[in-house]
Amino acid sequence: QVLSLPIVVIVHGNQDNNAKATVLWDNAFSEIDRVPFVVAERVPWEKMCDTLNLKFMAEVQTTKGLLKEHYFFLAQKIFNDHSASLEDFQSRSVSWAQFNKEILPGRGFTFWQWFDGVLDLTKRCLKSYWSDRLIIGFISKQYVCKLLSTEPDGTFLLRFSDSEIGGVTIAHVIRGKDGSSQVENIQPFSAKDLSIRSLGDRIRDLGQLRNLYPNIPKDQAFGSHYNKEQTGKD
């Protein structure tokens, strides 16, 4: 006899997301010589970071993993705490309930459901952009405003949507005639949107976008991702 890897039996596709969460938690945090089915209810946040990073790189098939600032954003999200420092989070532990039972404040989904949506979108539509480090992705709307508020008109960056599962949005600076700046967020693009027209081509279409943060002309940053425009005849 030999113990198998964890298996979850589901009866409907809508259970797929929760099943993946169960398998991920079990694979990452169970002891090799455990009693069958016994797995920790809480794990150190640092261990969770390693797990999310390995999962992200394996799913997306990229060598570019998550960065320290990404972990900070994810910690703020899962713990619902925007006052703690990066060091504070390192000593915390995260529970299964926080990972995939409790609904995120003001949302209709759990942390894992949101993260899995990001995984799926990146794998299907954004792999090359992520691998070229053109997407910051894991960053809060508030921090984006702080970063962009002093930048020139037309500076933009890409972040994963907070309010929708599997969406990427473009935040960009608009400067008024009086010199005051405003950061606008474009309606998030889903995998379906990006299958119709790619992210690179959408960025090329939007004339108000000029430089990718901090200061890279958009054609230089995204030029290799533009598709050749077909003529009407084609």
TrEMBL record:
InterPro entries in the record: p53-like_TF_DNA-bd_sf, SH2, SH2_dom_sf, STAT, STAT_linker
Record bears the keyword Transcription regulation: yes
Residue span(s) of domain SH2: 114-213
Annotated localization: Cytoplasm; Nucleus
One term of GO molecular function: DNA-binding transcription factor activity
Keyword DNA-binding: yes
GO biological process, one term: cell surface receptor signaling pathway
Major site of localization recorded for this protein: cytoplasm
Classification via Pfam families: SH2 (PF00017), STAT_linker (PF21354)
Sorted UniProt keywords: Activator, Cytoplasm, DNA-binding, Nucleus, Phosphoprotein, SH2 domain, Transcription, Transcription regulation
Example of a GO cellular component annotation carried by this entry: nucleus
Alphabetized PANTHER family for the sequence: SIGNAL TRANSDUCER AND ACTIVATOR OF TRANSCRIPTION (PTHR11801)
Similarity comment: family membership: Belongs to the transcription factor STAT family.
Name recorded for this polypeptide: STAT6 protein
Taxonomy of the source species: Eukaryota, Metazoa, Chordata, Craniata, Vertebrata
Gene name of the record: Stat6_1
